[in-house]
Amino acid sequence: MPIRVEIYAAGGVAVGVVARAGRLRDVLESDRELLVERATWHPLDGSPAQPAGELAIAGDDILLAVGDEHEEGPVHAQWHDVAVRVGPYRVTGQMPTMPGFDPGRALARPTGEFVLLRDVRISLTDTDPEGDSTQSTAFVNRYVVDEVAADLMLGFFFPGATMTVTGGHDRTTAGATRGLDAITGSGPVAAPGPVVDVIAGAGA
Question: How far is the C-alpha of 190 from the C-alpha of 201, rounded, in Å?
Fold first, then answer.
């Protein structure tokens, strides 16, 4: 059964289907390129959405991927509030680790290129919250994340990213978002962006 997808890249969002059976994570991890069929390309430069037929998107160019099925995540996982900046997007949500995970002692490195998040909110980094997209789950390419704020040291999962640990009584998604703002010295700026229309139209 084809998988309906939204693929977030640096220049826009591709909405279409992947004509392969299986789970989105497996497709993302198994192919160097993702072929999106019956695709519509929604550029972030303010120009209109464009029917694109087929789009072959290199794995390294996929910043975020959203499918039409909810991903449950690992059994017995502990979920941590996290906020990341990846390309032009700000993403908040929750990321799973196994019970007892200790970033200071962990030996096994994470496998795969994509990290699952749940209860996800996606926006352009220069837009206001009214333009946010909410998703039940999404996959973020951990190798291209620029900045991370979370309630424990999750830089283990995001090599090369700037990491801020939120703590005390502020271990919430809002706290993670404030931590992310602290990294860059800036928060979201109220400005209308084409991503508002992209995200609003993507689920139609």
Answer: 21
Give CA separation, 19 vs 1, 37, 103, 141, in Å.
7, 7, 38, 21
pLDDT digits (tens, 9 = 90+) for 146-170: 999 988 777 678 888 898 887 644 4
| Phi, psi of 170, deg, nearest 5 | -115, 40
Q: Which domains does the chain have, with CATH numbers?
A: 3-67 (2.30.30.100), 78-184 (2.30.30.100)
Whether the CB-CB separation of 58 and 127 falls below 8 Å is answered with: no
Can you tell me the distance from the alpha carbon of 155 to that of 196, in angstroms, rounded to the nearest whole number? 30
Task: Give phi and psi for 38, each to the nearest 5.
Answer: 50, 45
Q: How far does CA 177 lie from the centroid of its chain?
A: 14
Residues 17, 10 contacting (CB under 8 angstroms): no
The pTM of the full predicted model, rounded to 2 decimals, is 0.78
Tens of pLDDT, residues 18-33: 988 788 988 998 878 8
Tokens of 93: 């949500």
- What is d(CA 197, CA 178) in angstroms, rounded to the nearest whole number? 26
